[in-house]
Structure prediction request, 566 residues.
Amino acid sequence: MPNVMIRKNDAGELLFYVAKKDMEETIASVETDTCECWGGEVELTDGSRWYIDPISPPPAFPTTLRFKRSED
Amino acid sequence: MSALTREETQALIQEVLEVYPEKAKKDRAKHLAVNDPSVEQSKKCIISNRKSLPGVMTIRGCAYAGSKGVVWGPIKDMIHISHGPVGCGQYSRAGRRNYYVGHTGVNTFGTMNFTSDFQEKDIVFGGDKKLDKLITEIEGLFPLSKGLSIQSECPIGLIGDDIEAVAKKKSKELDKPIVPVRCEGFRGVSQSLGHHIANDSIRDWVIGNRDGDHAFQAGPYDVAVIGDYNIGGDAWSSRILLEEMGLRVVAQWSGDGTLSEMELTPKVKLNLIHCYRSMNYISRHMEEKYGIPWMEYNFFGPTKIAESLRRIAAFFDETIQANAERVIDKYRAEYEAVIAKYRPRLEGRRVMLYVGGLRPRHVIGAYEDLGMEVVGTGYEFAHNDDYDRTMKEMGNATLLYDDITGYEFEEFVKKVKPDLVGSGIKEKYIFQKMGIPFRQMHSWDYSGPYHGYDGFAIFARDMDMTINNPCWRTMQAPWQQSAEGEAQTMAASA
Prediction:
């Protein structure tokens, strides 16, 4: 359950940054991304998948959230 | 020697790896790569930030070097105690040439060495009492210091001293911030973790200090320069450009910087990062906590300076944008004269770099402005994100090497035969004896500044006086030279 900092890059995409793992990836897709709710399963451009219980209302980025590695 | 093709470079890497035992070869192969600018993610072709192999000559430092030497050390009005045996502090004292203004020993302490000088009894009975006494003594001798930091050396972590408790107690007693930093040298694989630990300690002990204090008059054009260590005056030659643009530089991190500047940084509008590797952590924190955007910039060479000034200006209104153009125009005659003078003398020369932090990618633009080509580059302690950025800057089929060993570096240089090598002091004399012009690019070979338009003139002059120095023609004794080939002496002495 790493602490992940989510921030927007210049192009407006969301970046998934894990300081401890020295890993920064772009988020490819988010399961729920509506005005009321953000979260669920998150897929990164490197193909890995992570999970967070949907947050309501959606958080303001940048912010730090706790993700779980999602099991297939 | 003309540019190598992709296959030739790959073959060169294989050839150099040949001498290693099987296991070492497999490991080292991951750290050497042929650049392909089209690759988006560096981790697909180069591995970085891994422990160096025992038995090879690495050029890396330790976490203490990253914290005390890089991040905390240049903060001039604080006293940085090297807590532990005397050597770590003494042999790294003032070597990085972080310039500052002030009266050393009165209100600034940058070049001084404060240490608790651990002895056997301190290891056996613990050093907390000594630290307590030392801080009292420092306060008596140097009452104008604005704060203290305790930079742990290896034994502190090994014997489990509680420096945080001492810091808290003394901080209350003296009414000054005292920052305990857990940067024991054995942490991490290189100085990079030291940067991170130092950033975290700044986050925990400094950044929030003035959160409720609104005495500071924040302006609309406030910026902070982050990750410029003022080596040879770099931050000063960067700062004037920003100020001419109409921005107000509130803080310099950390070259010629002060504690109060750091405390005021959360009140700025934009953080400008020069050294991404060592200070991105704190910038990310400030973005999250205070909503301050940050951007990387590059003040090496006129092309990159103009690009950066325009990108910085884009964060502000039209006046600043117009000012940016005015600044670029103002210096145009100056830098064009520099290029006109030195470019003919340096055109087509090839450079290999092996440094740390930001230089292996940031200086490429400055070399290109002088018509030179960087044919190989590498970092001591980079992470993947550094290589992501580097691969776009470097030409196709050039060499990339991470945490290169002494042997590999020598072999690459022998084969690639660059006209200039830029690396550290430990490499300098080896390559000079091989007859290859060399610049010590960690602290600009006792020269500088290299940032900004003023710095570019010095950079160009230094490269010229190194490469075109007449001494390289006299590397071989006259009687050993072949009849026609006195110019061919460059690589022969290796």
User: Anything to note?
Assistant: The mean pLDDT of chain B is 93.
